[in-house]
Specification:
heterodimer; A: seven-stranded mixed sheet; about 0% helix; globular; B: mainly beta; six-stranded mixed sheet; 9 strands
């Protein structure tokens, strides 16, 4: 059974960098796409971006200038860095598995099928 | 940028059919997924590829996607189905876009 666990500081000061880790168990991180999604309290879901272990990454255009995703395949972990944070970045951050399968020239999308429990990050001085 | 729109709330009586819509320009040309989120929990996938149910999702959940609208239908709605539901559009260029969410009330 695939499980994901987010970790990182719960409090980040404005203008600093938010750094989160997602540990994956029960599956190889080289097999699928992996994604970060966030949710401000009482609000909807916002896709931050996804990556594949080969280096293929896609970021939300609204966050692209501040986001970096990376991976450590030896530890089966992946990471999120969000720079120059403000109060608007306060949210629950989820890491998740995003299933995209290539069949010849066609991509088949199977959705975000496994989610971590989420970690709350507050941006405040 | 691409956007999809959901109604903020939908109410349904127990045992009746609930329909939650998701609207976007030519949404039928993209994949639609639906997620259920209960208070204090992570979202859970209930429909993918417009109309497919993941293992373990009850048959009362179904989906469709055509034209500009995707629809999540819950037949014989139960109290346990009360939750927030999010639609998600995907294609290889748009990537991932979530709707604003719909609060389903079973009363």
């Amino acid at each position: 059974q695939v499980q994901l666990q987010e970790s990182g500081p719960g409090l980040v000061k404005p203008s600093e960098t938010l750094s989160l880790t997602c540990a994956v168990s029960g599956d190889s991180i080289t097999t699928y796409y992996w994604t970060w999604i966030r949710q401000p309290a009482g609000k909807g879901l916002e896709w931050i971006g996804r990556f594949y272990a080969s280096g293929d990454t896609n970021y939300n255009p609204s966050l692209r200038n501040r986001v970096t995703m990376s991976v450590d395949t030896s530890k089966n972990q992946f990471f999120l860095k969000l720079t120059s944070v403000t109060a608007a970045d306060t949210a629950v951050y989820y890491c998740a598995r995003d299933v995209i399968i290539r069949g010849g020239e066609t991509l088949f999308y199977y959705g975000v099928d496994v989610w971590g429990q989420g970690t709350t990050v507050t941006v405040s001085s | 940028s691409y956007e999809v729109t959901q109604p903020p709330s939908v109410s349904v009586s127990p045992g009746q059919t609930a329909s939650i819509t998701c609207s976007g320009d030519k949404l039928g040309d993209k994949y639609a997924c639906w997620y259920q989120q209960k208070p204090g929990q992570s979202p859970a996938l209930v429909i993918y590829q417009d109309d497919k149910r993941p293992s373990g999702i009850p048959e009362r959940f179904s989906g469709s996607n055509s034209g500009n609208t995707a629809t999540l239908t819950i037949s014989g709605t139960q109290a346990v189905d009360e939750a927030d539901y999010y639609c998600q559009a995907w294609d290889s260029s748009t990537h991932v876009v979530f709707g604003g969410g719909t609060k389903l009330t079973v009363l």
